[in-house]
Structures are given as C-alpha cells and as structure tokens.
Write the structure tokens for this entry.
Amino acid sequence: MPKLLREDDIVRVESNVYSVSGSNTNWVIVKDGDSCTLVDTGYPGDRDAVLASLEAVGLNARSVAAVLVTHAHNDHIGAAEHLRATYDVPVLMHQEEVPHARRDFLDQVSVGQVLAQAWRPGVLPWAVHALRAGGITHVPVCEPQAFPAPGALDLPGAPVPVHTPGHTKGHCAYHLPGSGILITGDALATAHPTSRINGPQLLPDMFHTDRARALDSLAVIEGLDAGLILPGHGPVHRGLAKEAALTARECAAR
C-alpha cells in the first residue's frame, strides 16, 4: 500500500536536515546545496513518498549522493535498490550488513514470531500495516557497498558511521558532529505501534537479533556529543544522547 506523503510528515530539524515520517518508519535527508545524503528509504510501499520528500525540499532522485543504510530490514531499505538501479546511487552500510542487504540471509522478525505476540496491544494492527507496506516483500540491494574507510564519509553532512550492533549485526547510527544530530535507526527509538511507552527506548525484544548487544550499544550512544535524536521509529527527540540512552536502558530494565 503506497504511502501518501503529507506536509507535516517532513520535519526540518536543522537548516539542512529533514526527518521524514513514512509508514511507521522514518528516513532522513541531509542537504548540501543541490545534493544530499539519504539515510534509509522506508518500506517498499514508501518509494513514491521518498521521491516526493526529495522534491519537497527542492531536490530529486538524481540529487542523492548516496543512500546510507542503518540496517537492512525491509522497512529501512524499501527504495534503496530502486535508487541504485535507476539513478546509479551508491548504497553504503557497515560491512557486516552487506550480506544481509544482498539477502544472503534475512535477519528480521518472522511472521511466526509476530503471530506469537499477536495478543499484545498494537501488534496485530502493526503487522497488518507492515504487510500492506511491503514488510515481507523481497527487496535485496544487488550491489551494496561497505563504507570505504573509517571515520566521516565524504558526503553531504559529513556523516560519521557509528557501529551499534544488536538490532542487527551491522546496524549503524550516523552522527553529524557539526549539527549535534544523531540518526539512530533502530538502535534507539522514541515510539512504535507495538510499544506502550513514548520517549527514548529500545524496540520490543522480538525485533532484535541480539538484545544484549542492543543494550550494550546504548553505551556507545551515551558517549556521543549530540543533542538531537532522529530515530527510525517515533518523533524527533530534542535532548542529549547520553540522557536518551540512559532513559532507554531504564525502560528496558522494567
């Protein structure tokens, strides 16, 4: 089911950084003149919304210098292969996420795991929505690329990949030191349809490949100098990364 983009789905969080809400998942546009870095691309059903969001900020698909992937779940790479194959946009990620993006294997919550949790509030409506948005569609990235070198990437915004494994083995957050912004993907969320809490949190356990490592990665987030959190799920969070990570850890311990 294609996502129709509304005006209030695009939040300008800084002069050149936009957080966009898709089908229960977010992507980020980091603009620099007539070029940009695109972090994640929503569900397969979000493809038109991704393209529309670029147009809304004065860009287009050919403006994308690269797609950066936080992790290769369907709700984050839905339009990545389209951009790569159609517009020759490189799709970059942590080296441990490359085989996952190619779909050498699929490491995301299964239909069976979701059904086992269907009694929990919010799970069944979320699952129906996810299916309609392409949650189990086969969407490999045919030529994913690992980051070319450690440190800041030579892309708009000079994003710094931060390995935050646990949700998946190669999960990465992206730090924009010049803006004090941290794009957390699913290493730290602020809301989710299957969660009963709002604010900084880990996603529910069924979504993580390794929950213990996901908890450990909160310590990595704690150490980053950022005062604005752009999560993969939930609204933008204005507050220190250290405090957000501590809140998420406290929630996880309940």
